[in-house]
Design a protein that fits this description.
The protein is of the alpha+beta class. It has a single domain, classed as Immunoglobulins (Immunoglobulin-like, Sandwich). It is built from one helix and nine strands; from the N terminus they run αβββββββββ. Strands 4, 5, 7, 8 and 9 form a five-stranded antiparallel sheet that branches. A four-stranded antiparallel sheet has the order 1-2-3-6, with no helix packed on it.
């Protein structure tokens, strides 16, 4: 009777182990985050967003279609832009103009993959944030 109990425990452990192994193997792999370098289309007023390396820095340019805008804040992070705890640093503020095309130069960012976003401040103090655009800056 003792052997039967041991055998039942061994089978139970084997089955649980097999189920755990199967569930781990069947779990989908995490999605690879692909960040666009250039964004086009309409994103809550942003009709274009582009970034590129310029000298030792980077240029961010965008178009915004709403006239209810006060201005813009351009921010960067070297961290994961999808992480809500990433630290975003403001690199420039730009006032609204009638041409609705804007540009900001980030003078001397740290080397690596730099993620940029633009936040539009509306007349009612609400904000609209652009998608993220990424630039690769080699070591200076």
């Amino acid at each position: 009777m003792h052997t039967k109990s041991f055998l039942m425990k061994a089978i139970t452990v084997f089955v649980i182990g097999a189920l755990v192994s199967f569930s781990i193997a069947a779990a989908p792999a995490p999605a690879k985050v692909v960040l666009p370098k250039h964004v086009s289309g309409s994103f809550d007023g942003f009709s274009s967003l582009r970034s590129h390396r310029q000298g030792k820095g980077a240029d961010v340019s965008w178009s915004f279609s709403s006239a209810n805008t006060i201005g813009f804040s351009v921010q960067r992070t070297n961290e994961d832009p999808t992480d809500p705890y990433s630290v975003w640093v403001t690199v420039g503020t730009i006032g609204y103009n009638s041409s609705r095309s804007y540009k900001c130069h980030d003078e001397n960012p740290n080397p690596g993959f730099i993620n940029y976003r633009v936040t539009a401040v509306m007349n009612d103090q609400s904000t609209v944030t652009s998608p993220v655009t990424t630039v690769h800056i080699a070591a200076h």
